[in-house]
Structures are given as structure tokens and as C-alpha cells.
Write a structure and sequence with these properties.
Blueprint: E1 9-11, E2 17-20, E3 28-29, E4 34-36, E5 40-46, E6 50-60, E7 66-69, E8 79-80, E9 90-93, E10 100-103, E11 108-111, E12 124-130, E13 136-142, E14 150-154, E15 170-173, E16 181-184, E17 188-190, E18 200-202, E19 219-224, E20 227-228, E21 235-240, H1 244-253, E22 259-263, E23 266-270, E24 277-279, E25 288-293, H2 295-303, H3 307-333, H4 338-341, H5 349-359, H6 373-382, H7 394-398, H8 400-413, H9 424-432, H10 443-447
Parallel strand pairs: 15-24
Antiparallel strand pairs: 1-2, 3-12, 4-9, 5-6, 6-7, 7-8, 9-10, 10-11, 12-13, 13-14, 15-16, 17-18, 19-25, 20-24, 21-23, 22-23, 22-25
């Protein structure tokens, strides 16, 4: 049966209680409920959409401390009752006052509600729930004509101080300390665009310590009033400095360090992954955070809103088509192919075979009889003999470097193995010249 206080009770045939819901809480406690040491409440995964177990936990620890934590990620909690060392601790939701208290055997040792809750038990239903955003919140509902639950108290006054609220490499912002916004740090993209709190992944994997890499000369992205919080032992190093630029340079010069924070005349180099990037008022005021990114990433970020970026997208979409059309035009206009294209009677099969061999001369071992246009051009590129197929066209020879680049990009775009085709971003970088255009693999390598 359901009692008036919301406790669901199961009775045996003699009306003896064999189970009741107050002994098995999930994410909510009600007035009259007592949680002893060792009890844990878990948030759900996603509001009213997914009621499976989420990533946050309220625990009355055996050391006497009441702690909120992102338990799936380890580390210490982000909020606690500061009651460490007490014995026989319980959390009580008082049925008369609608206040929550942490008590030991003899007294109240912590009051959850520091100010009076302006509602009475007689007129309102009360509940306290750990939300999917990691906050313990008290809600009320008017018993007479109410149409929604209203928030009257919360443990967390700055929602972005909740650990891992935006996932790995996600930045939490909340200007009004009410609604949370998650976005990826520069150089990272969301794992799930429909659920930004799942975190982000790097756009490119880079090794800043590789002197031969194009990313060995990185840039620094700066975030004002921002912190990348780690536990004390999770920082790479710390040193005192009153100069924020000295901290920035230290992060830039250390190839093993990808991020850092300057705060209170102290520089902290951070380990990865960055789980708690946050901009929260007032907790992170006057802090400066840095993240290291490849220069090409930094440049792309500023190009995305410019007309040139749109033009490059258009070029990308047509690059492979242009390369093929250009190649066909080259072959069509080649002097050796004209007699056969125009159907001149002197074109005998034997002569045609000889011309085909001339057009396909890549090396002595190449089988050319059954080659198609793309394979032929690819073989010429791999043999370093691309210039020979346009040797008759002085206009193309005059701009051969661009022809070669466009041809190779086109070959990459139509690679028979889809996994080898470059991403849109990489094609743009190839066209801009910020990434070297490598020689496409041979046909056999693509297939295998």
C-alpha cells in the first residue's frame, strides 16, 4: 500500500512489513525519510528521457561526510557537508519543517537548507532529487490546484562547478548560474551533437614533440575567466609567477603540455584529458586558461565565417570532377589520339595498340592494355611521369604545378577505397597549401 508520506509498503498476510520503498531510494528522498551511513542516491541519465543510472551520486560515506560526486570518473567530490570524522551519521528529511539535516547520534551537524523554505508540509508536496546535472534540489508542488513542480532550494549555486558536466574537452558556461551550455574547446568536436554533455574528441591527433611534424609550431588559444580544474596530483607541474604571459609561454614551450591555467600568481600545467573546463561566476573570475592547438586548426577556426571558406567548399565538391574532365580533355586533344577519335581510316588496330603503349609508358613492367583513364593517370603520377601526358599543351605546362596538385587531389577524392579518401577539412588544407598533397596509393594498394 502507498502511505500518505509517499512510502510504498508491501505487507505479508499478517500485515507485517516485508519491504518498503524508503529503504531502497533511487534518485529521490521524501519528507519523513532517513538515509543512514552507506546510502547512495544516483541521478538518472537524461532528465525525463532516460531513467537509467546517470553519472552523479549522493553518498553518505562511512567517514561521516555527505558527498556529491561524478562517480564514473573517479576523483574527489565537488560538494560535501564537511562532516568528516563523525559517527553514525544520517541524512534526515524532516517531516514537520521540510528541512534536510545531517545528524549524528546527538545533534544536527549540518543544515542543508540555510534559509527557511517558504512553504508548509500541509499545503505542499516536497521532494529532494539528485538531478542529471549533478545537483541535489528540493522541489514543491501545491496540493490545491498546482500544475507544476517549483524549485525552492539547491545545493549547487554554480552549476558549472559540477565535475564532468560537459564531458572530456567540453567547456561549461552558465552566465546566469542557472542554465548550462556545453561546447567543445578549440580543436575538438562533439561526440554527439544532440547531447553536448557527452564530451568532445580531437579533430586531429598531433604530436607537438615531433620536430618533423607540421604541428611542431603550435598556437595557443586563450580563455579568460576560465579554469581547467584537476585534482592537485593531476597537474603536470605548478610554479609561481605574476606574469600571465610567462605562464602562457611555459605551456607553449613544453611539447608534453597541452593546456594550462594561470590563477592567483600561479601557473599550473595540466594533464589530459581535460574533464572540468568551466567558466563560472565568481569561481573562475580572473583566471586565464590556455589550450595548445595546431596552427592550421587555429586558422581554420577564423576562416569558417569568411567567404573564402565557402569558396573552398565549392572547390572541394568539384575538385574530383574537374580533375577527371581536365584529364579527359588532355587525352582528347593529344595528337596521338586524334586519328582514332575522328575515325580516320588509317587507324588500324595494330597502330592503335602501339599508340596506347606510347600513351601508357610508365615502366616496362606495367600492363597497359586494359587501363582506364584514372588508372593511367595514377600510374603516371606514381612513376613521376605526369608531365608527359600534357607535354603537347604549352598552356598547361606553364601552370603545371597547379595542374599536378589538382590532379592528385582529384585522385585522392575518387580513391576506390573509401577509407583512404581525405576528409573535407583535409582537402581544404591541401588546396590552401597548409597540408602537403601526398602521392595517391596505387590501385592494388587501394583494393587491399
Amino acid at each position: 500500500m502507498m502511505k500518505n508520506n509517499g512510502n510504498l509498503v508491501l505487507l505479508d498476510s499478517s500485515s507485517k512489513i516485508i519491504w518498503h520503498s524508503f529503504d531502497s531510494p533511487t534518485d529521490t528522498i521524501l519528507p519523513g525519510q532517513v538515509l543512514p551511513m552507506g546510502t547512495k542516491l544516483y541521478s538518472n541519465a537524461n532528465g525525463t528521457i532516460d531513467y537509467s543510472t546517470g553519472q552523479y551520486r549522493l553518498e553518505i560515506q562511512m567517514d561521516g561526510n555527505l558527498v556529491l560526486s561524478a562517480f564514473r570518473f573517479g576523483g574527489r567530490g565537488y560538494w560535501n557537508s564537511v562532516t568528516l570524522g563523525n559517527q553514525n551519521v544520517s541524512l534526515i528529511f524532516n517531516q514537520s519543517t521540510a528541512f534536510m539535516y545531517v545528524v549524528n547520534d546527538t545533534r544536527i551537524i549540518y543544515s542543508m537548507n540555510r534559509t527557511e523554505v517558504p512553504t508548509t508540509i500541509e499545503d505542499y508536496y516536497h521532494r529532494a532529487t539528485i538531478s542529471d546535472r549533478g545537483d541535489l534540489q528540493q522541489w514543491i508542488y501545491n496540493k490545491r490546484g498546482g500544475n507544476q513542480w517549483t524549485l525552492v532550494w539547491r545545493a549547487i549555486t554554480e552549476p558549472c562547478i559540477v565535475n564532468s558536466i560537459c564531458g572530456a574537452f567540453g567547456l561549461c558556461t552558465s552566465p546566469d548560474n542557472n542554465e548550462v551550455t556545453c561546447k567543445c574547446l578549440t580543436g575538438y568536436s562533439p561526440l554527439d551533437p544532440n547531447n553536448p554533455s557527452r564530451g568532445c574528441y580531437p579533430d586531429v591527433i598531433v604530436d607537438f614533440c615531433d620536430a618533423n611534424s607540421s604541428t611542431s609550431d603550435p598556437a595557443i588559444e586563450e580563455y579568460n575567466n576560465t579554469d581547467f580544474l584537476n585534482d592537485v596530483f593531476a597537474d603536470l607541474s605548478r610554479f609561481p609567477t605574476t606574469d600571465v604571459n610567462e605562464c602562457k609561454k611555459a605551456v607553449l614551450d613544453d611539447c608534453f603540455c597541452l593546456a594550462g591555467v594561470w590563477s592567483d600568481s600561479r601557473c599550473m600545467k595540466k594533464r589530459l584529458p581535460l574533464m572540468n573546463a568551466r567558466r563560472s561566476n565568481p569561481s573562475t573570475n580572473n583566471m586565464v586558461a590556455f589550450i595548445k592547438v595546431p596552427k592550421m586548426e587555429n586558422q581554420d577556426q577564423h576562416r569558417k565565417d569568411s567567404p573564402s571558406w565557402v569558396v573552398l567548399l565549392a572547390v572541394f565538391l568539384s575538385c574530383s570532377i574537374l580533375a577527371l574532365i581536365f584529364g579527359i580533355a588532355v587525352v582528347y586533344n593529344h595528337p596521338l589520339t586524334q586519328p582514332y577519335i575522328h575515325g580516320q581510316p588509317s587507324a588500324k588496330p595494330k597502330s592503335l595498340h602501339r599508340v596506347t603503349e606510347e600513351l601508357h609508358q610508365v615502366d616496362e613492367g606495367t600492363q597497359v592494355e586494359d587501363m582506364i583513364l584514372v588508372d593511367w593517370v595514377l600510374c603516371c603520377v606514381n612513376a613521376g611521369n605526369l608531365r608527359s601526358i600534357v607535354s603537347h599543351d604549352l598552356e598547361v605546362l606553364g601552370d603545371f604545378k597547379r595542374f599536378e596538385t589538382m590532379t592528385m587531389i582529384g585522385l585522392w577524392c575518387i580513391c576506390s577505397n573509401p577509407t583512404l579518401r581525405p576528409s573535407m577539412k583535409k582537402v581544404i588544407q591541401m588546396l590552401e597549401g597548409t597540408v602537403e598533397v601526398g602521392v595517391p596509393p596505387e590501385v592494388d594498394a587501394q583494393i587491399s
